[in-house]
Amino acid sequence: MEDITAKTKISELIKANPKSIDAIASLAKPLEKLKNPILRKIMASRVTIGEAAKMGGTTVEEFKRVLLPLGFTFKQETSTKEETISEPKPTWLQQANKSDIDFYDVRPIIDNGADPLKEILGRFKTTQPGKILCIINNFVPTPLIHLLKQEKAEDTFVETFSDKEFYTYFLKKEKEASQSSETAEEKLQMNDEESFAAICSHFTKDQTKEIDVRELEMPGPMQLILAELEELPVGHALYINHKRVPVYLLEELADKNYQVHINNREEGNVKMLIFKK
């Protein structure tokens, strides 16, 4: 029997019992993403049961209902009551003028079966420092919160209007973190096959993680690559098999401390090596 709480990560549930994937996915449509191995990798390690419940517009009690038959037991938390109390708006949001906030409703994109990640990242990229991007969704976009808070968002806040309407605010940092003196062009290098192989040889097999994103639909490749880079240790490299030069990914990495090498061998066959500087 596994003891779990609302703070238990989804990845821990899956590791303990893989049947929990189907059980959780049955609770709400947004949680069906767990059935996709790529999206599961991105989401499961970051999201807790409590956060997943908010994402799916469901409750921890519903999670308990489907997980108890799988052998899990829920430990009672003394803080459960406190967690139901709405948090007050942070000062930066209270003092913001409406003109400082870019409201972006992504529900139509999701209703059409698409993933709005690329559009959201593009929108946040154009948000001025000190200004706010508000994503309107029918669930709490927990993986997105983790992604943007990693470097670009100073703070975030989720405002709940109903169990199907959430406003997630992202405050853009006033100043970007100190950047390398290298230009984006210096950090991105197009290599011929020989020089690319030479760069790859700097890393042993144990220091190289290889992935293939050629069969993934957009924005799956970008999501997986960003997730892998987040976990990539210093001194290791990510080797990517891609079918095109990923322009949006390169834009996203331009202000980060990564070295990117690309070998465009032929149409539909692009090799990439990315590592931390």
TrEMBL record:
It comes from the Bacteria. InterPro entries: DUF1858, DUF2249, ScdA-like_N_sf. Coiled coil: none annotated. Residues 105-154, 210-275 form the DUF2249 domain. Residues 4-63 form the DUF1858 domain. Transmembrane segments: none annotated. This is DUF2249 domain-containing protein. It comes from Kaistella carnis. The lineage of its organism: Bacteria, Pseudomonadati, Bacteroidota, Flavobacteriia, Flavobacteriales.
